[in-house]
From TrEMBL:
Organism: Aneurinibacillus aneurinilyticus ATCC 12856
A Pfam family that the UniProt record links to this protein: Glycos_transf_1
SUPFAM superfamilies xref list: UDP-Glycosyltransferase/glycogen phosphorylase
N-terminal signal peptide: none
Protein name: Glycosyltransferase, group 1 family protein
Length: 377
C-alpha cells in the first residue's frame, strides 16, 4: 500500500498529554505506511522531541500569539506539502487550519478532541472566545476523534453527528514502564527517603487538577504519619500556591517538587501509590501510565477515567473536592499491602489488554484510510 502523507498541527508551546500522544502515535505510524509531518507554532520542547525522533517538523513561530497571518502561513505550508489528510489538535490549531483549507483543493481534516473546553479555560471570557473559535469553524471540519466516551458525548451534545465521531482511546507504551533499576537508587536521585511511603502525582500544576485538595489531605496525613512523602511531577501556575500551603503547614520538607520530567516511567517506580484528585480529564493518561507501571491508583471518576477505572477492582474511586476522603483512602492503602498489590496487578492488566499504543495507532491509521478514500471518490 502507498504511504499516506499526514500533516499534524498543534500549538506546541507546552509539553502535555496531547504533545506526548502525537509523539507516540507518529513513532508507530511512521513505520506503518504513514509519512508524518508536524506543524507547530512554537520552537520549544515539543519541536525538539520531534526532531530527536526523526519526525519532520515545520515551526511557524514568526507570528504573534493570535495572528491572522497564520492563515496564510498554513495555506502556504499545505500547498507545498500536499498532504493526503490534515490532523489538528487544540483550539488554536483547529481554528487556523480550518480557515486555511477553505481556499485549497479539498483535503480532509480530522480533529482529535483531547479534553473538555470549559475545564481548559477557567476564565469565562477565555472560555467564551475559545468555544466560539471552535464552534464557528466546525463547518470546515470533516471528522472528530474522541479520546473517551465522555468527550464523544460532549461533541454529540454540541451538535456533532455520531457518524462524524470515532472513539479512539490513547495508548500507553507499556514496555517503557518496566525498569531493572533499584528503587532505592531512583529515590536517592529524587531526594526521597528510602523507607518513606511515597504518594505521587504527575500532572500540570493547574487548578483543575485538584492538587490543593490533595495538599489538604496530605497535611492531615502528615500529622500522624511521619514517614509519608509526596512526589510532585509537573509544573504550572499553581506551584507557588501549593508551596505556600506546604510552608504554612510545616510539611515542605516532605513534599518534593520535581518539576517537568522526561523520565516519568522511572519516577513512577519511586512511588508506592498514585493519586489523581482531578476535576476533569479527557482520558486520564497519567493514571493509565501509573497503572502500566504497576502502581495502585486512587482517583476521582471524571471524564474518560470512567472508561477504564472500576472501584476496588483496578483502583479506588474518590469524590471530587473532598480532602477527607482522599486522606481516608490513602490510609486504607497505606495500611493494606495486599490490597495495593491486587489493585496494581489488575490495573496493569487493564492497560495491557485495552490501552496499548499499537491498538491506538492501528485504529487511527484505518480511520485515515477511510477518510482519504471518501474524499477521493
Amino acid at each position: 500500500m502507498s504511504k499516506m502523507k499526514i500533516l499534524h498541527t498543534i500549538g506546541g508551546g507546552e509539553f502535555g498529554g496531547a504533545e506526548q500522544h502525537i509523539l507516540e502515535l507518529l513513532e508507530i505510524l511512521s513505520r506503518h505506511a504513514v509519512d508524518p509531518v508536524v506543524v507547530c507554532f512554537y520552537n520549544s520542547t515539543f519541536a525538539k522531541e520531534l526532531r530527536k525522533r526523526n519526525i519532520r517538523v515545520i515551526v511557524l513561530d514568526t507570528y504573534g500569539r493570535f495572528d491572522f497571518r497564520l492563515v496564510k502561513g498554513l495555506t502556504r505550508v499545505f500547498q507545498e506539502e500536499k498532504p493526503d489528510l490534515i490532523h489538528s489538535h487544540g483550539v488554536k490549531a483547529n481554528f487556523f487550519c480550518r480557515l486555511a483549507v477553505r481556499s485549497l483543493p479539498r483535503i480532509p481534516i480530522v480533529t482529535t478532541i483531547h479534553s473538555v473546553l470549559r475545564y481548559d479555560y477557567p476564565n469565562p471570557l477565555a472560555y467564551f472566545l475559545a468555544s466560539r473559535m471552535e464552534l464557528w469553524t466546525r463547518r470546515w471540519n470533516d471528522h472528530y476523534i474522541a479520546i473517551s466516551n465522555s468527550i464523544r458525548q460532549s461533541l454529540e451534545s454540541d451538535g456533532v453527528t455520531a457518524e462524524n465521531i470515532t472513539l479512539i482511546h490513547h495508548g500507553i507504551p507499556i514496555e517503557e514502564f518496566k525498569t531493572n533499576e533499584d528503587m532505592r537508587d531512583i529515590r536517592r536521585s529524587l531526594e526521597l527517603p528510602e523507607d518513606a511511603f511515597v504518594i505521587g502525582t504527575v500532572s500540570r500544576l493547574v487548578a483543575v487538577k485538584g492538587l490543593t485538595d490533595l495538599m489538604q489531605a496530605f497535611i492531615l496525613l502528615a500529622a500522624d504519619n511521619p514517614h509519608i512523602h509526596w512526589l510532585v511531577i509537573g509544573d504550572g501556575p499553581e506551584k507557588e500556591a501549593l508551596q505556600n500551603m506546604a510552608n504554612s503547614a510545616g510539611v515542605n520538607g516532605r513534599i518534593h517538587f520535581a518539576g517537568f520530567r522526561q523520565d516519568v516511567p522511572r519516577c513512577l517506580q519511586a512511588m508506592d501509590l498514585f493519586v489523581s484528585p482531578s476535576y476533569s480529564e479527557g482520558l486520564g493518561l497519567s493514571l493509565l501510565e501509573a497503572m502500566a507501571a504497576k502502581k495502585p491508583v486512587v482517583s476521582t471518576m471524571v471524564g474518560g477515567i470512567s472508561d477504564f477505572l472500576v472501584d476496588y477492582l483496578n483502583g479506588i474511586v474518590i469524590p471530587t473536592k473532598n480532602p477527607e476522603e482522599i486522606k481516608q483512602n490513602i490510609l486504607i492503602l497505606m495500611e493494606n499491602e495486599d490490597l495495593r498489590m491486587k489493585l496494581a496487578e489488575a490495573g496493569y492488566r487493564t492497560v495491557k489488554e485495552e490501552y496499548t499504543l499499537t491498538h491506538m495507532a492501528m485504529k487511527t491509521k484505518e480511520l485515515y484510510r477511510q477518510l482519504i478514500r471518501t474524499h477521493v471518490k
